[in-house]
Each structure stands twice: as structure tokens, then as C-alpha cells.
Design brief:
The protein is α+β, with helices and mostly antiparallel strands. It has one domain: Histidine kinase-like ATPase, C-terminal domain (Heat Shock Protein 90). The chain is about 25% helix and about 25% strand. The protein has three helices and five strands, in the order E-H-H-E-E-H-E-E. It has a five-stranded antiparallel beta sheet, with helices on one face. A hairpin with a 3-residue loop joins strand 2 and strand 3. Helix 1 packs antiparallel against helix 2 and helix 2 packs antiparallel against helix 3. The longest helix has 19 residues.
Amino acid sequence: MTDGVRAPRLLVDTRAAAPTRLVTLNMRADKDYLALARTCAMHTAAVLGFPLSRVTDLRLAVNEACLCFLEAPVRRGSDLLGSSPAPAALEIAYDLYPEELHVTLRSPVPENWPRVDETGWALLRALVGDVRVFAHEGLGTLTLIEPLPAPTR
């Protein structure tokens, strides 16, 4: 029997106006850490009862969203030895709303970010329900919005 909640009762309080933060992942904006982001996306979608095809789509969308930040180098000073600057931090937050999952990525970005005319951007828009992007004072925010699966009876 369902009570109108589109996720297990333990994960969301439908009376709350604010979303429920499920996961926050802070990692280096570095391709070597993409597996963490993909695994987190897969696990979160599976826990919420997404069908396998949508779990896979969300995993791929999170991967592409991360690449939007990794492929947007931000100029920072290098260290005294002249090596390249360390990668920026990338934050990924999973917020549960009564009818949607929001996956929000934040990291420093250059002025021309995002590059919405590239293939990765088209792929992002095809994989999830909605994509929102915002950049202000060198910090970019990209949010993937995915409707929750209908409750099973």
C-alpha cells in the first residue's frame, strides 16, 4: 500500500518544505575521481527505486556533468616548483524532494562556462528530466533534476 510518497518513508518527510539531503560528496575535480561520482549516483538511484535503465542514465548524466567542470580549467597560480595547479574541489549533493531528485554539482569555473553548444551538454539534456545551470563570480552550479519513479503497488 502506498501513501502518496514516491520514495521509502524513511528517506523523505512529505510534510517538510525543505528537501532531504541524502548525500554530499566532496572530491577533487579530477578524472581519477569520476568513479566515486558514478558509484554514488548509481547507489542513490537504486535506493530510491529507479528502474535499472534510469539508474544507468543518471550515472551517465552525473559523469557528463562532472566532465563539464573537469573540461573547464580555471587559471590558478602554480606552486613554487612550477608544476601545474592542483585541481579544484567538486561538490556533488543529492537532494530528495517529494517528486524529484536533484543532483547539484558545484565547482570553480571560467567566465565562458558552460559550453552549451557541445555534445556533452546535449547528452545531459537527453538523459535527465531537466538541467539547470548558474555561474556567478567564478563558481558554477549545475543541477540535474530527475522525477522520482512512480510508487509500486
